[in-house]
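Researcher: Here's a chain I'd like modeled. Treat it as a single chain, no partners, no ligands.
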Amino acid sequence: MSAPRVKLDIDATRDKLATLGLGHAVEALEGLLAEAVQSELAAHVFLDRLLDAERSGREERRIKTMLKTSKIPTGQTLENFDFAFQPAIERSRIETLATGAWIRNAEVVLLQGPPGVGKSHLLVSLGVRAIQLGFSVQYFRFDELLTALGADAHLPSARIKSRKYMSSSLLLIDEMGYDPMTRAEASLFFRLVSYRYGRGAMIITTNKSIRDWTELLAGDEVLATAILDRLLHRAHVLNIKGRSYRLRDLEEALRA
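Model: Modeled as a single isolated chain. Structure tokens:
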């Protein structure tokens, strides 16, 4: 009968790191130790690199989890947005928004323009960047948001305030304006905007210009004025005019 294997020192260290919940450091330990011995690294440099491995691993996991729970569509980032194709969009303005300062100030970004010009891509990209910066984010297509608001309409205010469309630092509302709202839906949307005003940031994409919002909001001019008054105060309005990315892709496919 063979004697039980004696644990090496590195195994004991792994166990202690695991007990402390430092799983990413456990995975990086062996490689970093080998590098430290080979390069004759000082102890504090090795420890710093081990802690960096744990921190970066946790940050990667946080971002991955937040992207999943936020319901943000995947694949669209600021890095793969084609600014050259859409010169109407000032790259400097988008880069300023990507710093997240406007989110801390609970401001609004309104992206207006016809279908296919990149509004949703920018909304998603800025939402991803907000998560990378540490903000809580929630994505809704506008029809999904109205469904959620209607389902929660009977709830007391305390419970509604805990809903993600109320509590997230940044609320992403995509594709607003394809269908007019009923008066009940417009009233629920007003409640959302009123609560988030000064409390939480929003990005809204719409194919409607501001002058058409009364028609969108059940023809209620008073309600439209009240909503726009809150949305446009300290808002960043980007009116995007240009060719459709989807039509460009179709044209290229037809030429191939």
